[in-house]
Amino acid sequence: MTSINLADRGVDLGEWAKSTPNAADEFAAAVRSWLDENLTGDFAHLKGRGGPGSEHEFFAERLAWDRHLASAGWTCIGWPTEYGGRGATLEQRIIFHREYARANAPARVNHLGEELLGPTLIEYGTDEQKERFLPGIVDVTELWSQGYSEPGAGSDLAGVSTSARLDDGKWIINGQKIWTSLAHVAQWVFVIARTEKGSARHAGLSFLLVPLEQPGVTVRPIQQLTGTSEFNEVFFDDATTDADLIVGEPGDGWKVAMGLLQFERGVSTLGQQVGFARELENLTEVARASGAVADPELASRLARADIGLKVMRAHAQRTLDGDVTSQAGAASVSKLLWANWHRDLGELAMDVVGAPALIGPDATAEGQPNDIADPEHVELDEWQRLYLFTRADTIYGGSNEVQRNIIAERVLGLPREAR
């Protein structure tokens, strides 16, 4: 084991790795050891909590866990050290996400800040913006949400109509965003708004940083099929933000937004795949225990799911390693791979479990109706929750149709789809 404390923020992980034999194994052991020692006591019951369809679980406790990670130097490890990060190498970042998932550690509450906005500000933000916002992301004292989609512009981001105009040193914002993940618990939202009157499509958009806790903002949670409310609709009625809280120049919004989406498809997807692997392993055990694996069709689908997971991992590793031939359209290919795989796993889970999957655990309990419209009475097991949540996997974050159009038009050079 290393003679220095790798959780110490004073240790530049990248520089340490250069001078340390077997650095990868040593780093993995350090992460594993820290998680084993710290996912105990008050944090022990958080294991496996807060995943898709269960975002409401123990939010305050998971926020405390994220801040515990921060105090021990395990947040934003891939950021440069001058911005509060650890200078971790790509290999170290992959190792951290892998070990975190293997430990069944709770879902993070700061993903949008740490993995999306932070890297975007480092790439495109001003020095003042970095100084103002990056420390709050590193220590998890400010949470962020994403204001992209609108009722008339879901996956078609270029069609947004939310507007913003400069007036006496402030951006005045009007419009509506929808599917705004975590807006009900966040203090800030990054918003794509149309700042050039009369502009259309990709032109005239700007990327604004907007405080949510102000009179001009209304946040309304949207109930999901799982009975939880992870995302929201957000209304801006003459909401304001300071004139200098624009990332890039006015009109640069499309470029900044696309840059952010590249970060979204980054290293953390490998950790996501470890979670997928655990779901598949657990489902395979259910199939074996129930005898469902004796069904040739179900056995074949389980095998194909395992092959799909390996394909997903190979694609992610190839693109993250900087293989130039795989960079074009890589984000769209990645989204198509994991979203369709995960949706199919939810369907496979229903078929493996069989008829009991159609009945809620409390459906026969007197006075306890299993009413999906009443979240207080929704009792779903892990496979029901997986199935219901994954129905949206091929829609959010860019639908299948949009991803295929991106690949066709921007990578293969095919004509634009007729509108």
Automatic annotation (TrEMBL):
Source organism superkingdom: Bacteria
Reported cofactor(s): FAD
Residue ranges of every copy of the Acyl-CoA dehydrogenase/oxidase C-terminal domain listed in the record: 251-412
Keywords: FAD, Flavoprotein, Oxidoreductase
Annotated ranges, domain Acyl-CoA dehydrogenase/oxidase N-terminal: 25-139
GO molecular function: flavin adenine dinucleotide binding; oxidoreductase activity, acting on the CH-CH group of donors
Pfam families: Acyl-CoA_dh_1, Acyl-CoA_dh_M, Acyl-CoA_dh_N
Cellular component terms (Gene Ontology): plasma membrane
Positions of the Acyl-CoA oxidase/dehydrogenase middle domain: 147-238
Recorded family membership: Belongs to the acyl-CoA dehydrogenase family.
Protein name: Acyl-CoA dehydrogenase
Organism (species): Gordonia alkanivorans CGMCC 6845
